[in-house]
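To: structure desk
From: M.T.
Subject: fold request, one chain
Message: Could you run this one when you get a chance? Sequence is below, nothing fancy, just the single chain.
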Amino acid sequence: MREQILNLIAPIKNPVSGQTFTMEGRWKEIAVDGEKITISYDREGISPQEKRLVEKMIVENLSGVVIEENLTLKSISANSADVFKAASTTTEVPAPAQIKTGHAAPMAKKSVPGVGKVIAIGSGKGGVGKSTFTVNLACTLSRMGRKVGVIDADIYGPSVPMLMGKRGEKPVANNDRKIIPLEAHGVKFLSFGLFVEEKDPVIWRGPMLGGVLNQFLFDADWAGLDYLFIDLPPGTGDVQLSMVQNCNVDGVIIISTPQDVALLDAVKGLEMFRKLHLPILGMVENMSSFVCSNCQHEHHLFGEAGVEKAVTKLEVPFLGKVPLEIELRMSADSGNPYMANPSFEGRPVARAFQAVAAKIEQQFHPQDPVKSGLFSRLFGG
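Reply: Done. C-alpha cells follow.
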C-alpha cells in the first residue's frame, strides 16, 4: 500500500521550483494504519497558498484509493516565518471582487452562512430550460415575500446575467472581503459570467471549477436569504460533486422536458443525487407544451406528460409542468424575467410557476400562516 501511495503522489511538483517532490526528497513519511494514511512532507520555502495547492493535489491523486476522511497530511518546515507573516499582514480591501483561479482547497462540509435553505437545480442534460426555470422560480418566490438568491454554477455557459438583465456588470467586495452579489428583480445572484467577457471561452479543469463554486457559496454575502438556488451545469460531473462534498444541500429539483431522450439523462442526474444521499424535492416537466398566444391552443411539441408518468416509477414527487409561451422566450432574451412582470398574472406559465413555488414552500414551511393564506389565493381556496 505504501508503494502504491508513493507512486500516485510521485508526479506532484513543487509549485515554486517546478521539480517533483520526489526529486527534491520532500516526502518524509508515509504511514499506513489500516485504512488510515498519514503523509508527512517538507514544505520549506512553500507559501501557505502554495501549500494548499499541493495538499489539494495530494487529495486528488489519492482519491481512488484513500477516502479523504482517512487521510492526514503533515508538513514540516524549519522556517515558518512565511506562515506568521501571512497571518499578521493586512491590506486594503480592493473595490472590485476577485475570484481565484487556483484549485479548491479541501474543506469540511458546511452550511452557507445566513441562508435558510440551499436548493440545487439540475437536469442531467443541457437545453431543457433549467436556467430560465431557476430565475423565474426565484422571482416567483421573491414576489411571494421570500428573500431569494441564485448561484449560476454553469461555469462553461453562464446565462443568468443575461436572464437578469445585468450583462457587463461587475460585483464588488465589502470590508470583510466578501463578494457582494448583484441584485435584480428582487433576487440576488452571482455568476461566473460576471467575471469574464462573454466572448471568452473558459478552459478549466474540474478542481478549478470547484474552487469558484466554493467562493460563490462561502466567500459571498448571502446573509438573510430564505432560499439560495444553485443552477447546476448539465451532467453529473465535477461541479455537482464539489458542491455535495463541501456544502450542506437541503434538496434537489430535477428539470426535464417530456421526451424520452431528455428523461434518460434526467434520471441519471436524479440517481447521482440519490447515491450522494441528497433529498429529492421532486421533478418538473419544463416546456411541457406550447400555448399559442393567438388561439390559446395547447401543442405538445416534445410529447405529453413524460415526466408526470415517470415520477411514479421513480418514486419522487411531481412538482408540476411549465408550458412554453412566446412571452417567456422574449422575457428571457430581454433580461426581464417572466415572473417579475405582474402583467402576466393568471396566464398558464405564471400559474405553473406559482404552483411549483407553493409546493416548495409547503415542503419547507408547512406551518407558515402568512404563506398559507397566499396559497389559498393562488389556488382559489
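Reply (cont.): Residues 348-364 form the longest helix (17 residues). Let me know if you need anything else for the meeting.
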